[in-house]
Structures are given as C-alpha cells and as structure tokens.
Amino acid sequence: EEGNATGVKQLVKSKLGVDYAMFGEPSGVENITVAYKGRLAIRLACDVGRSAHASAPWLAKNSIEEMYDFWKAIKAEIERVGTADNKAKSVSCSLTEITGGSSHNVTPQKCKITIDIRVPTITSCDNVLSMVDTIIKKVATEKNIKATYRIEDKTEPFEADQTSPLVRALLLAVLDVRNKRPMLLRKTGTGDMNVLGHNFKIPVITYGPGDPHASHTVDERVNIAEYVASIEVYERALFHLSRLH
Question: Residue 170's domain is classified under what CATH number?
C-alpha cells in the first residue's frame, strides 16, 4: 500500500489468475470493509514572477499568500459534492504539504502544495479532477498568476458486491468465531482493494484485526487476541467459501 499503491498496481500488471481476493487491512475483528473512497493527490505550483525584499512587500505578490487563495477556492467548491452528514458519501479535501520561499527576508516567488482529495463512490476521480482544473484556471486568470499542477495519485473509489460468495463466507465466519453479525464498513480512506477490484473484476473484500483509525499513525498497533481471532475467521471463511464457490 505504500508509495501510492505501487505494489498492487504492479501486481495487477501480472494478470494473476485468481477468483477471489481478501486484503488484511485493519477493519476490526468484528467488521468487514466493503467500500473505500478513491484518492486524488495533486501537486499544485504557482509562480508570481518575481520576489521582493521583505521590508518592501508591496513590490511583489507573495506566492504563499496567493496559493492560499487557490486552496480556499478548491476546498470550498470540492466539499460541496456529496452528502454533508455522511462522511463516506462526501468529498474531503486536505492540504498536506507546502513549500515556498528562498530566504527568511525575501517574499516568496514560488510556492507548491499537495492536496489530498478523497472521492466517494457516488462520483469519480475524473469528475473531481475536472472541477479542480476549472477552479485552478479560474483563480489563475483572475489573479494573473502562473499556476500548474501534476497528478501524484489517482485511485478510483470502489464498493464490493455484498452479495458475492466471498462476502457471505466472511459474514458466516465472523458469526462462527465471534457469535456476532459483523458490521459492513464504508471507509473514508483508500486501499489496495480499489485497484485490484476495478482491474480484475472479481469478488474482493478487506478484513483484518486492528483499529483502522490508527493506521499510519504513531499509535498503530494490533491487539494479539484480535490477531489470533482473525486467523480463525480466515480459516472459517475459506471453509464457507469452498462450499459457496
């Protein structure tokens, strides 16, 4: 999953002859992940043409300040897409990186930011990208500023077929091991399931121990008891899948 999902994208090129796929990303031992948002990562750059001494800032535009206007315009428009009271069905937009300036006493001529957009299954990365492109061009024209961008990652949203034998097998397995019907989760993140599911057109699912909210954080961890229980769930899932296949 690291490095913009380069691993699974390379795996897809190998055209493996598989019937089903289960990904071990954390869902919680009593939950099954059936949907992920897509991801659109954009690196946006602006150039105001010149810099000035910080003691005379009126002599040049400040690229960092100007970039913030690009960011506000993109965020305001993009986050209107979807349902505001349902995070899994709304578009989210995060400013994750910013670089700019050449010295502590000179106004910055250039600035770059990274925008991480998560795209729900109700739309597509292409639709959102079209909106972003229009906004960038509009703001650049209004401000008479040179702005360019490149796509760092584009992974379409995905939702698994909940009637597939794989989902049914895993449902039964969790019931067997935990005596509880699992919750079907629609995550706001993005996973390898998106890439393989779209390309292979086979039943896929994500299930694994651990708290998904702790993923990629300093507190990421897996409870040993949950880990052992998840192994039992996988065993039972394979048993049920052999019957349902």
Answer: 3.40.630.10
